[in-house]
Amino acid sequence: MTVAQLALIEAPSVAYGALSPMLIVFGVAVVGVLVEAFAPRRLRYPTHLVLSLGGLAAALVAVITVAVAQTRGGGLGEFVMSGAVVIDRPTLFLQGLLVVIAIASVAFMAERRLERVVAAPAPGRRVSDGPGAAAQATMSSVEADMFTPSGASVPNTDAEFEATRAGGLTTEVFPLTLLAVGGMMLFPACGDLLTMFIALEVFSLPLYLLCGLARRRRLISQEASLKYFLLGAFASAFFLFGAAFAYGATGSLQLGAIGEAVGAAAREPAGDTVLPLIALGLLAVGLLFKVGAVPFHAWIPDVYQGAPTPVTAFMAAATKIAAFGALLRVFYTAFGGLQDDWQPVVWAVAIATMLVGAVMAVTQTDVKRMLAYSSITHAGFILLGLVAFDEAGLAATIFYLAAYAFSTFGAFATVAVVREPDRQSGPHLSGREATDIAQWAGLGRRYPLVGAMFSMFLLAFAGIPLTSGFIAKFDVFAAAAGSGAGILVVIGVISSAIAAYFYIRIIVAMFFADVPVDAPHVVKPSVLTTSSIAVCTVVTIGLGVFPQPLLDLAADAAQFLS
To answer: What does pTM read for this prediction?
Structure first.
Protein backbone atom coordinates (compact mmCIF):
# COMPACT_ATOMS: atom_id res chain seq x y z
CA MET A 1 0.00 0.00 0.00
CA THR A 2 1.41 3.36 -1.02
CA VAL A 3 1.68 6.48 1.07
CA ALA A 4 -1.06 8.10 -1.00
CA GLN A 5 -3.40 5.20 -0.35
CA LEU A 6 -2.63 5.30 3.37
CA ALA A 7 -3.42 9.01 3.39
CA LEU A 8 -6.92 8.28 2.05
CA ILE A 9 -7.76 6.10 5.07
CA GLU A 10 -9.96 7.99 7.50
CA ALA A 11 -9.26 7.34 11.15
CA PRO A 12 -12.40 6.46 13.11
CA SER A 13 -13.74 9.29 15.21
CA VAL A 14 -13.88 8.63 18.95
CA ALA A 15 -16.75 10.37 20.70
CA TYR A 16 -15.09 10.70 24.09
CA GLY A 17 -18.06 12.53 25.52
CA ALA A 18 -20.49 9.71 24.73
CA LEU A 19 -18.01 7.16 26.06
CA SER A 20 -17.15 9.19 29.16
CA PRO A 21 -19.12 7.08 31.71
CA MET A 22 -17.22 3.93 30.75
CA LEU A 23 -13.91 5.76 30.40
CA ILE A 24 -14.27 7.19 33.90
CA VAL A 25 -14.95 3.75 35.42
CA PHE A 26 -12.08 2.08 33.57
CA GLY A 27 -9.76 4.98 34.38
CA VAL A 28 -10.53 4.81 38.09
CA ALA A 29 -10.01 1.03 37.98
CA VAL A 30 -6.56 1.49 36.46
CA VAL A 31 -5.69 4.10 39.08
CA GLY A 32 -6.88 1.62 41.72
CA VAL A 33 -4.43 -0.97 40.38
CA LEU A 34 -1.64 1.58 40.73
CA VAL A 35 -2.75 2.38 44.28
CA GLU A 36 -2.64 -1.33 45.07
CA ALA A 37 0.89 -1.54 43.67
CA PHE A 38 2.49 1.56 45.19
CA ALA A 39 0.45 2.91 48.12
CA PRO A 40 1.36 1.92 51.69
CA ARG A 41 -0.87 -0.85 53.03
CA ARG A 42 -2.43 1.31 55.73
CA LEU A 43 -3.57 3.86 53.12
CA ARG A 44 -5.00 1.48 50.56
CA TYR A 45 -8.42 0.91 52.11
CA PRO A 46 -9.42 4.59 52.58
CA THR A 47 -7.85 5.55 49.25
CA HIS A 48 -9.71 2.83 47.38
CA LEU A 49 -13.00 3.67 49.08
CA VAL A 50 -12.82 7.38 48.25
CA LEU A 51 -11.50 6.73 44.76
CA SER A 52 -14.11 4.09 43.90
CA LEU A 53 -17.14 5.94 45.26
CA GLY A 54 -15.94 9.23 43.79
CA GLY A 55 -15.30 7.68 40.38
CA LEU A 56 -18.69 5.96 40.30
CA ALA A 57 -20.42 9.19 41.33
CA ALA A 58 -18.64 10.98 38.49
CA ALA A 59 -19.67 8.21 36.10
CA LEU A 60 -23.30 8.60 37.20
CA VAL A 61 -23.15 12.33 36.51
CA ALA A 62 -21.61 11.55 33.12
CA VAL A 63 -24.39 9.08 32.28
CA ILE A 64 -27.05 11.65 33.10
CA THR A 65 -25.24 14.33 31.08
CA VAL A 66 -24.85 12.04 28.06
CA ALA A 67 -28.49 10.93 28.31
CA VAL A 68 -29.71 14.53 28.29
CA ALA A 69 -27.51 15.36 25.31
CA GLN A 70 -28.38 12.24 23.29
CA THR A 71 -32.14 12.35 23.82
CA ARG A 72 -32.63 16.08 23.40
CA GLY A 73 -35.20 16.77 20.71
CA GLY A 74 -36.31 13.13 20.53
CA GLY A 75 -32.86 11.80 19.61
CA LEU A 76 -32.29 8.06 19.80
CA GLY A 77 -28.52 8.16 20.35
CA GLU A 78 -25.50 7.57 18.14
CA PHE A 79 -22.99 4.97 16.95
CA VAL A 80 -19.44 5.53 18.15
CA MET A 81 -16.12 3.78 17.56
CA SER A 82 -17.09 2.89 13.98
CA GLY A 83 -20.29 1.25 15.19
CA ALA A 84 -18.58 -0.94 17.79
CA VAL A 85 -20.41 0.87 20.60
CA VAL A 86 -24.01 2.08 20.51
CA ILE A 87 -24.99 4.89 22.86
CA ASP A 88 -28.76 4.74 22.64
CA ARG A 89 -31.64 4.98 25.08
CA PRO A 90 -31.58 1.39 26.42
CA THR A 91 -27.81 1.65 26.86
CA LEU A 92 -28.03 4.83 28.90
CA PHE A 93 -30.89 3.51 31.05
CA LEU A 94 -29.01 0.32 31.87
CA GLN A 95 -25.69 2.09 32.41
CA GLY A 96 -27.26 4.47 34.90
CA LEU A 97 -28.84 1.54 36.72
CA LEU A 98 -25.54 -0.35 36.77
CA VAL A 99 -23.64 2.60 38.23
CA VAL A 100 -26.19 3.05 41.02
CA ILE A 101 -25.95 -0.65 41.91
CA ALA A 102 -22.16 -0.43 41.73
CA ILE A 103 -22.11 2.43 44.24
CA ALA A 104 -24.16 0.36 46.69
CA SER A 105 -21.94 -2.68 46.01
CA VAL A 106 -18.68 -0.83 46.70
CA ALA A 107 -20.13 0.56 49.93
CA PHE A 108 -21.20 -2.95 50.98
CA MET A 109 -17.79 -4.40 50.13
CA ALA A 110 -16.13 -1.76 52.30
CA GLU A 111 -18.11 -2.86 55.38
CA ARG A 112 -15.80 -3.59 58.35
CA ARG A 113 -18.11 -4.06 61.32
CA LEU A 114 -19.60 -7.46 60.63
CA GLU A 115 -16.43 -9.47 61.22
CA ARG A 116 -14.05 -9.47 64.21
CA VAL A 117 -10.68 -11.19 64.12
CA VAL A 118 -7.69 -11.52 66.43
CA ALA A 119 -5.53 -8.44 66.71
CA ALA A 120 -1.78 -8.33 66.33
CA PRO A 121 0.09 -8.93 69.61
CA ALA A 122 1.41 -5.95 71.50
CA PRO A 123 4.92 -4.83 70.51
CA GLY A 124 7.63 -6.85 72.22
CA ARG A 125 5.31 -9.68 73.24
CA ARG A 126 6.35 -13.15 72.11
CA VAL A 127 3.67 -15.43 70.70
CA SER A 128 4.44 -19.04 69.90
CA ASP A 129 3.67 -20.32 66.46
CA GLY A 130 0.30 -21.88 65.72
CA PRO A 131 -3.26 -20.58 65.63
CA GLY A 132 -4.21 -21.95 69.04
CA ALA A 133 -1.36 -20.35 70.96
CA ALA A 134 -1.65 -17.10 69.10
CA ALA A 135 -5.37 -16.83 69.74
CA GLN A 136 -4.86 -17.48 73.46
CA ALA A 137 -2.16 -14.84 73.70
CA THR A 138 -4.07 -12.29 71.67
CA MET A 139 -7.31 -11.61 73.49
CA SER A 140 -8.07 -8.27 71.81
CA SER A 141 -9.92 -8.14 68.52
CA VAL A 142 -10.20 -5.83 65.55
CA GLU A 143 -12.93 -5.27 63.00
CA ALA A 144 -12.41 -6.71 59.54
CA ASP A 145 -14.03 -6.88 56.14
CA MET A 146 -15.67 -9.93 54.57
CA PHE A 147 -12.76 -10.87 52.31
CA THR A 148 -9.85 -13.18 53.03
CA PRO A 149 -6.66 -11.45 54.19
CA SER A 150 -4.58 -13.62 51.86
CA GLY A 151 -6.16 -15.10 48.77
CA ALA A 152 -3.02 -17.11 48.00
CA SER A 153 -2.88 -18.92 51.36
CA VAL A 154 -4.35 -22.37 51.88
CA PRO A 155 -7.61 -22.17 53.89
CA ASN A 156 -7.41 -22.94 57.62
CA THR A 157 -3.62 -22.92 57.80
CA ASP A 158 -1.05 -21.04 59.85
CA ALA A 159 -0.31 -18.84 56.86
CA GLU A 160 -3.92 -17.64 56.73
CA PHE A 161 -3.93 -17.14 60.49
CA GLU A 162 -0.75 -15.04 60.42
CA ALA A 163 -2.10 -12.96 57.53
CA THR A 164 -5.24 -12.28 59.56
CA ARG A 165 -3.30 -11.37 62.70
CA ALA A 166 -1.03 -9.09 60.68
CA GLY A 167 -4.10 -7.11 59.57
CA GLY A 168 -3.97 -8.17 55.92
CA LEU A 169 -6.69 -6.76 53.67
CA THR A 170 -7.60 -7.85 50.17
CA THR A 171 -8.19 -4.32 48.88
CA GLU A 172 -7.79 -5.62 45.34
CA VAL A 173 -11.56 -6.15 45.40
CA PHE A 174 -12.13 -2.46 44.66
CA PRO A 175 -10.28 -2.22 41.32
CA LEU A 176 -11.56 -5.68 40.38
CA THR A 177 -15.12 -4.54 41.01
CA LEU A 178 -14.63 -1.38 38.95
CA LEU A 179 -13.21 -3.39 36.06
CA ALA A 180 -16.27 -5.65 36.24
CA VAL A 181 -18.57 -2.61 36.30
CA GLY A 182 -16.84 -1.14 33.26
CA GLY A 183 -17.27 -4.39 31.34
CA MET A 184 -20.92 -4.57 32.37
CA MET A 185 -21.52 -1.03 31.15
CA LEU A 186 -19.98 -1.90 27.79
CA PHE A 187 -21.75 -5.25 27.38
CA PRO A 188 -25.28 -3.98 26.57
CA ALA A 189 -23.82 -1.10 24.52
CA CYS A 190 -21.92 -3.25 22.03
CA GLY A 191 -22.71 -2.82 18.35
CA ASP A 192 -20.77 -5.86 17.16
CA LEU A 193 -20.20 -9.36 18.44
CA LEU A 194 -16.43 -9.08 18.81
CA THR A 195 -16.70 -6.07 21.13
CA MET A 196 -19.46 -7.88 22.99
CA PHE A 197 -17.17 -10.88 23.56
CA ILE A 198 -14.42 -8.60 24.86
CA ALA A 199 -16.87 -6.93 27.24
CA LEU A 200 -18.08 -10.35 28.37
CA GLU A 201 -14.56 -11.37 29.32
CA VAL A 202 -13.73 -8.01 30.90
CA PHE A 203 -16.50 -8.30 33.47
CA SER A 204 -16.38 -12.10 33.86
CA LEU A 205 -12.71 -12.50 34.78
CA PRO A 206 -12.85 -10.16 37.82
CA LEU A 207 -15.99 -11.95 39.01
CA TYR A 208 -14.25 -15.33 38.86
CA LEU A 209 -11.59 -13.95 41.22
CA LEU A 210 -13.99 -12.13 43.54
CA CYS A 211 -16.05 -15.29 44.11
CA GLY A 212 -13.06 -17.06 45.66
CA LEU A 213 -12.11 -14.40 48.20
CA ALA A 214 -14.56 -15.03 51.06
CA ARG A 215 -13.11 -14.68 54.56
CA ARG A 216 -15.34 -17.42 55.99
CA ARG A 217 -16.09 -20.83 54.44
CA ARG A 218 -12.98 -20.52 52.26
CA LEU A 219 -13.23 -23.97 50.67
CA ILE A 220 -16.82 -23.40 49.56
CA SER A 221 -15.79 -20.01 48.20
CA GLN A 222 -12.91 -21.44 46.20
CA GLU A 223 -15.13 -24.21 44.90
CA ALA A 224 -17.66 -21.60 43.75
CA SER A 225 -14.93 -19.64 41.99
CA LEU A 226 -13.62 -22.71 40.17
CA LYS A 227 -17.10 -23.85 39.09
CA TYR A 228 -17.97 -20.39 37.81
CA PHE A 229 -14.67 -20.12 35.93
CA LEU A 230 -14.92 -23.52 34.24
CA LEU A 231 -18.56 -23.22 33.23
CA GLY A 232 -18.11 -19.57 32.28
CA ALA A 233 -15.19 -20.48 30.02
CA PHE A 234 -17.35 -23.03 28.20
CA ALA A 235 -20.18 -20.50 27.84
CA SER A 236 -17.77 -17.89 26.45
CA ALA A 237 -16.49 -20.43 23.93
CA PHE A 238 -20.06 -21.08 22.76
CA PHE A 239 -20.59 -17.34 22.37
CA LEU A 240 -17.40 -16.91 20.34
CA PHE A 241 -18.26 -19.90 18.17
CA GLY A 242 -21.67 -18.33 17.54
CA ALA A 243 -20.00 -15.09 16.48
CA ALA A 244 -17.90 -17.07 13.99
CA PHE A 245 -21.02 -18.69 12.53
CA ALA A 246 -22.71 -15.28 12.32
CA TYR A 247 -19.75 -13.93 10.38
CA GLY A 248 -19.78 -16.93 8.10
CA ALA A 249 -23.48 -16.54 7.41
CA THR A 250 -23.59 -12.77 6.89
CA GLY A 251 -20.01 -11.61 6.30
CA SER A 252 -20.13 -9.19 9.22
CA LEU A 253 -19.91 -9.02 12.99
CA GLN A 254 -21.90 -5.77 13.18
CA LEU A 255 -25.30 -6.42 14.73
CA GLY A 256 -27.03 -4.03 12.32
CA ALA A 257 -25.47 -5.67 9.25
CA ILE A 258 -26.31 -9.12 10.61
CA GLY A 259 -29.90 -8.00 11.10
CA GLU A 260 -30.17 -6.75 7.53
CA ALA A 261 -28.68 -9.93 6.06
CA VAL A 262 -30.80 -12.22 8.23
CA GLY A 263 -33.94 -10.22 7.49
CA ALA A 264 -33.30 -10.41 3.75
CA ALA A 265 -32.72 -14.17 3.91
CA ALA A 266 -35.86 -14.70 5.99
CA ARG A 267 -38.02 -12.73 3.56
CA GLU A 268 -36.92 -14.73 0.54
CA PRO A 269 -38.83 -18.00 -0.03
CA ALA A 270 -35.61 -19.80 -0.86
CA GLY A 271 -33.50 -17.94 1.69
CA ASP A 272 -31.04 -20.05 3.69
CA THR A 273 -31.31 -19.34 7.41
CA VAL A 274 -29.61 -22.47 8.73
CA LEU A 275 -26.28 -20.82 9.54
CA PRO A 276 -27.90 -17.76 11.19
CA LEU A 277 -30.02 -20.06 13.35
CA ILE A 278 -26.95 -22.04 14.40
CA ALA A 279 -25.19 -18.77 15.19
CA LEU A 280 -28.12 -17.54 17.26
CA GLY A 281 -28.30 -20.83 19.15
CA LEU A 282 -24.64 -20.69 20.09
CA LEU A 283 -24.79 -17.01 21.03
CA ALA A 284 -27.89 -17.68 23.14
CA VAL A 285 -26.03 -20.35 25.14
CA GLY A 286 -23.43 -17.80 26.24
CA LEU A 287 -26.00 -15.13 27.03
CA LEU A 288 -28.54 -17.39 28.75
CA PHE A 289 -25.72 -18.75 30.92
CA LYS A 290 -25.05 -15.25 32.22
CA VAL A 291 -28.70 -14.54 32.99
CA GLY A 292 -29.05 -17.91 34.73
CA ALA A 293 -31.80 -19.42 32.58
CA VAL A 294 -32.55 -23.15 32.58
CA PRO A 295 -30.78 -25.35 31.47
CA PHE A 296 -27.71 -23.13 31.94
CA HIS A 297 -28.42 -22.32 35.58
CA ALA A 298 -26.49 -24.99 37.51
CA TRP A 299 -23.70 -22.62 38.55
CA ILE A 300 -25.92 -20.07 40.26
CA PRO A 301 -26.82 -21.80 43.59
CA ASP A 302 -23.24 -22.89 44.32
CA VAL A 303 -21.68 -19.58 43.30
CA TYR A 304 -24.21 -17.43 45.13
CA GLN A 305 -23.78 -19.51 48.29
CA GLY A 306 -19.98 -19.68 48.21
CA ALA A 307 -19.06 -16.17 47.07
CA PRO A 308 -18.62 -13.37 49.64
CA THR A 309 -22.08 -11.96 50.24
CA PRO A 310 -21.21 -8.47 48.90
CA VAL A 311 -20.03 -10.13 45.67
CA THR A 312 -23.19 -12.26 45.55
CA ALA A 313 -25.36 -9.16 45.92
CA PHE A 314 -23.38 -7.39 43.21
CA MET A 315 -23.62 -10.35 40.83
CA ALA A 316 -27.31 -11.01 41.48
CA ALA A 317 -28.21 -7.43 40.60
CA ALA A 318 -25.61 -6.13 38.14
CA THR A 319 -24.82 -9.24 36.10
CA LYS A 320 -28.48 -9.75 35.26
CA ILE A 321 -28.81 -6.14 34.12
CA ALA A 322 -25.80 -6.35 31.81
CA ALA A 323 -26.56 -9.84 30.47
CA PHE A 324 -30.21 -9.12 29.72
CA GLY A 325 -29.24 -5.84 28.08
CA ALA A 326 -26.91 -7.68 25.70
CA LEU A 327 -29.43 -10.48 25.15
CA LEU A 328 -32.14 -8.02 24.18
CA ARG A 329 -29.83 -6.15 21.81
CA VAL A 330 -28.75 -9.33 20.00
CA PHE A 331 -32.31 -10.60 19.56
CA TYR A 332 -33.90 -7.25 18.69
CA THR A 333 -31.28 -5.80 16.35
CA ALA A 334 -29.56 -8.84 14.80
CA PHE A 335 -32.01 -11.73 14.72
CA GLY A 336 -35.45 -10.12 14.71
CA GLY A 337 -36.07 -11.53 11.24
CA LEU A 338 -35.97 -15.05 12.66
CA GLN A 339 -38.56 -14.38 15.34
CA ASP A 340 -40.84 -17.19 14.19
CA ASP A 341 -37.95 -19.65 14.50
CA TRP A 342 -36.48 -18.68 17.87
CA GLN A 343 -39.64 -17.67 19.71
CA PRO A 344 -40.82 -21.26 20.46
CA VAL A 345 -37.40 -22.02 21.94
CA VAL A 346 -37.54 -18.92 24.14
CA TRP A 347 -41.02 -20.02 25.22
CA ALA A 348 -39.63 -23.38 26.34
CA VAL A 349 -36.65 -21.80 28.12
CA ALA A 350 -38.90 -19.29 29.93
CA ILE A 351 -41.32 -22.01 31.08
CA ALA A 352 -38.52 -24.28 32.29
CA THR A 353 -36.75 -21.40 34.04
CA MET A 354 -39.86 -20.23 35.90
CA LEU A 355 -40.92 -23.68 37.06
CA VAL A 356 -37.54 -25.26 37.80
CA GLY A 357 -36.40 -22.23 39.81
CA ALA A 358 -39.60 -22.12 41.85
CA VAL A 359 -39.78 -25.86 42.54
CA MET A 360 -36.11 -26.14 43.48
CA ALA A 361 -36.33 -23.13 45.79
CA VAL A 362 -39.00 -24.91 47.85
CA THR A 363 -36.52 -27.64 48.79
CA GLN A 364 -33.72 -25.35 49.99
CA THR A 365 -32.67 -25.01 53.61
CA ASP A 366 -30.08 -22.27 53.06
CA VAL A 367 -31.23 -18.67 52.62
CA LYS A 368 -28.59 -17.78 50.03
CA ARG A 369 -29.34 -20.86 47.95
CA MET A 370 -33.05 -20.11 48.18
CA LEU A 371 -32.43 -16.57 46.91
CA ALA A 372 -30.26 -18.05 44.15
CA TYR A 373 -33.07 -20.26 42.88
CA SER A 374 -35.40 -17.29 43.27
CA SER A 375 -33.14 -15.35 40.90
CA ILE A 376 -33.47 -18.18 38.37
CA THR A 377 -37.25 -17.92 38.61
CA HIS A 378 -37.10 -14.18 38.03
CA ALA A 379 -34.91 -14.72 34.97
CA GLY A 380 -37.82 -16.70 33.55
CA PHE A 381 -40.22 -13.85 34.29
CA ILE A 382 -37.91 -11.36 32.59
CA LEU A 383 -37.71 -13.59 29.49
CA LEU A 384 -41.45 -12.98 29.01
CA GLY A 385 -40.53 -9.47 27.89
CA LEU A 386 -38.32 -10.96 25.18
CA VAL A 387 -41.17 -13.24 24.09
CA ALA A 388 -43.38 -10.15 23.62
CA PHE A 389 -40.75 -8.72 21.25
CA ASP A 390 -42.13 -5.21 20.99
CA GLU A 391 -41.59 -1.84 22.64
CA ALA A 392 -43.97 -2.73 25.47
CA GLY A 393 -42.00 -5.91 26.15
CA LEU A 394 -38.68 -4.07 26.07
CA ALA A 395 -39.97 -1.38 28.44
CA ALA A 396 -41.37 -4.00 30.81
CA THR A 397 -38.08 -5.89 30.78
CA ILE A 398 -35.85 -2.97 31.69
CA PHE A 399 -38.31 -1.83 34.37
CA TYR A 400 -38.27 -5.35 35.82
CA LEU A 401 -34.47 -5.30 35.84
CA ALA A 402 -34.48 -2.04 37.81
CA ALA A 403 -37.06 -3.24 40.34
CA TYR A 404 -35.47 -6.65 40.84
CA ALA A 405 -31.92 -5.29 41.15
CA PHE A 406 -32.70 -3.19 44.21
CA SER A 407 -34.81 -5.89 45.88
CA THR A 408 -32.26 -8.68 45.47
CA PHE A 409 -29.36 -6.47 46.53
CA GLY A 410 -31.22 -5.44 49.66
CA ALA A 411 -32.12 -9.06 50.47
CA PHE A 412 -28.52 -10.30 50.25
CA ALA A 413 -27.24 -7.31 52.22
CA THR A 414 -29.75 -8.09 54.98
CA VAL A 415 -28.58 -11.70 55.09
CA ALA A 416 -25.04 -10.49 55.80
CA VAL A 417 -25.98 -8.76 59.07
CA VAL A 418 -27.60 -11.86 60.61
CA ARG A 419 -24.81 -13.69 62.45
CA GLU A 420 -24.36 -16.84 64.47
CA PRO A 421 -23.39 -16.44 68.16
CA ASP A 422 -19.83 -15.24 68.62
CA ARG A 423 -17.36 -18.06 69.00
CA GLN A 424 -13.70 -18.41 68.21
CA SER A 425 -12.79 -20.29 65.04
CA GLY A 426 -9.11 -19.91 64.22
CA PRO A 427 -8.44 -16.20 63.83
CA HIS A 428 -12.16 -15.37 63.74
CA LEU A 429 -13.81 -14.22 66.95
CA SER A 430 -17.26 -13.37 65.57
CA GLY A 431 -19.95 -15.70 64.32
CA ARG A 432 -20.46 -16.58 60.70
CA GLU A 433 -23.45 -15.56 58.63
CA ALA A 434 -26.53 -17.46 59.79
CA THR A 435 -27.78 -18.74 56.45
CA ASP A 436 -29.67 -21.84 57.61
CA ILE A 437 -33.38 -21.08 57.36
CA ALA A 438 -34.02 -22.87 60.68
CA GLN A 439 -31.75 -20.34 62.40
CA TRP A 440 -34.03 -17.48 61.33
CA ALA A 441 -36.90 -18.73 63.49
CA GLY A 442 -38.11 -15.94 65.76
CA LEU A 443 -35.69 -13.41 64.27
CA GLY A 444 -38.46 -10.99 63.35
CA ARG A 445 -39.76 -10.88 66.94
CA ARG A 446 -36.31 -10.18 68.37
CA TYR A 447 -35.25 -7.73 65.64
CA PRO A 448 -38.47 -6.26 64.18
CA LEU A 449 -36.78 -3.80 61.83
CA VAL A 450 -34.56 -6.41 60.17
CA GLY A 451 -37.43 -8.87 60.00
CA ALA A 452 -39.74 -6.28 58.45
CA MET A 453 -37.21 -5.22 55.81
CA PHE A 454 -36.34 -8.78 54.80
CA SER A 455 -40.05 -9.65 54.69
CA MET A 456 -40.65 -6.67 52.44
CA PHE A 457 -37.98 -7.86 50.01
CA LEU A 458 -39.49 -11.36 50.01
CA LEU A 459 -42.98 -9.96 49.37
CA ALA A 460 -41.56 -7.98 46.46
CA PHE A 461 -40.12 -11.20 45.02
CA ALA A 462 -43.55 -12.80 45.42
CA GLY A 463 -45.21 -9.92 43.57
CA ILE A 464 -47.42 -8.73 46.42
CA PRO A 465 -49.17 -5.35 45.77
CA LEU A 466 -47.57 -2.14 47.04
CA THR A 467 -44.11 -3.50 46.25
CA SER A 468 -41.97 -3.02 43.17
CA GLY A 469 -42.26 -6.72 42.35
CA PHE A 470 -46.00 -6.47 41.80
CA ILE A 471 -45.68 -3.63 39.31
CA ALA A 472 -42.79 -5.33 37.52
CA LYS A 473 -44.62 -8.65 37.16
CA PHE A 474 -47.85 -6.98 36.13
CA ASP A 475 -46.03 -4.98 33.46
CA VAL A 476 -44.16 -7.95 31.98
CA PHE A 477 -47.23 -10.21 32.14
CA ALA A 478 -49.30 -7.55 30.38
CA ALA A 479 -46.69 -7.22 27.63
CA ALA A 480 -46.59 -11.01 27.14
CA ALA A 481 -50.38 -11.30 27.11
CA GLY A 482 -50.63 -8.43 24.62
CA SER A 483 -48.39 -10.33 22.21
CA GLY A 484 -50.50 -13.49 22.37
CA ALA A 485 -48.48 -15.36 25.00
CA GLY A 486 -51.33 -15.81 27.43
CA ILE A 487 -50.28 -19.37 28.23
CA LEU A 488 -46.93 -18.08 29.45
CA VAL A 489 -48.73 -15.64 31.75
CA VAL A 490 -50.76 -18.47 33.26
CA ILE A 491 -47.59 -20.50 33.85
CA GLY A 492 -45.94 -17.40 35.30
CA VAL A 493 -48.81 -16.97 37.77
CA ILE A 494 -48.52 -20.64 38.79
CA SER A 495 -44.77 -20.23 39.27
CA SER A 496 -45.38 -17.10 41.35
CA ALA A 497 -47.80 -19.04 43.55
CA ILE A 498 -45.20 -21.77 44.12
CA ALA A 499 -42.58 -19.13 44.88
CA ALA A 500 -44.90 -17.36 47.31
CA TYR A 501 -44.93 -20.51 49.45
CA PHE A 502 -41.24 -20.46 50.30
CA TYR A 503 -41.16 -16.68 50.70
CA ILE A 504 -44.03 -16.75 53.16
CA ARG A 505 -42.50 -19.79 54.89
CA ILE A 506 -39.52 -17.68 55.90
CA ILE A 507 -41.73 -14.80 57.02
CA VAL A 508 -43.81 -17.15 59.17
CA ALA A 509 -40.64 -18.61 60.67
CA MET A 510 -39.25 -15.18 61.51
CA PHE A 511 -42.35 -13.92 63.29
CA PHE A 512 -44.24 -16.96 64.55
CA ALA A 513 -41.77 -19.82 65.18
CA ASP A 514 -40.00 -20.48 68.45
CA VAL A 515 -36.51 -19.09 68.88
CA PRO A 516 -33.94 -21.90 68.48
CA VAL A 517 -31.08 -22.66 70.83
CA ASP A 518 -27.98 -20.62 69.88
CA ALA A 519 -30.19 -18.19 68.00
CA PRO A 520 -28.38 -15.77 65.70
CA HIS A 521 -28.12 -12.08 66.39
CA VAL A 522 -28.07 -9.00 64.19
CA VAL A 523 -24.83 -7.05 64.02
CA LYS A 524 -25.28 -3.34 63.48
CA PRO A 525 -23.34 -2.42 60.33
CA SER A 526 -21.70 0.87 59.48
CA VAL A 527 -23.38 3.64 57.56
CA LEU A 528 -22.03 2.14 54.31
CA THR A 529 -24.17 -1.00 54.50
CA THR A 530 -27.01 0.69 56.37
CA SER A 531 -27.42 3.31 53.64
CA SER A 532 -27.33 0.65 50.90
CA ILE A 533 -30.07 -1.39 52.56
CA ALA A 534 -32.09 1.77 53.24
CA VAL A 535 -31.92 2.85 49.59
CA CYS A 536 -33.02 -0.60 48.42
CA THR A 537 -35.90 -0.55 50.90
CA VAL A 538 -37.09 2.89 49.81
CA VAL A 539 -36.87 2.00 46.12
CA THR A 540 -38.71 -1.31 46.61
CA ILE A 541 -41.58 0.41 48.41
CA GLY A 542 -41.46 3.55 46.27
CA LEU A 543 -41.76 1.68 42.99
CA GLY A 544 -44.70 -0.22 44.41
CA VAL A 545 -46.56 2.95 45.40
CA PHE A 546 -45.32 5.50 42.84
CA PRO A 547 -44.05 3.51 39.85
CA GLN A 548 -45.15 5.85 37.08
CA PRO A 549 -41.99 8.01 36.77
CA LEU A 550 -39.77 4.97 36.23
CA LEU A 551 -42.38 3.31 34.00
CA ASP A 552 -42.40 6.43 31.82
CA LEU A 553 -38.60 6.50 31.77
CA ALA A 554 -38.48 2.83 30.77
CA ALA A 555 -41.06 3.43 28.03
CA ASP A 556 -39.01 6.33 26.65
CA ALA A 557 -35.88 4.15 26.71
CA ALA A 558 -37.48 1.19 24.92
CA GLN A 559 -36.11 1.76 21.43
CA PHE A 560 -32.85 0.36 20.12
CA LEU A 561 -30.82 2.36 17.63
CA SER A 562 -30.24 0.20 14.55
So the answer is: 0.94
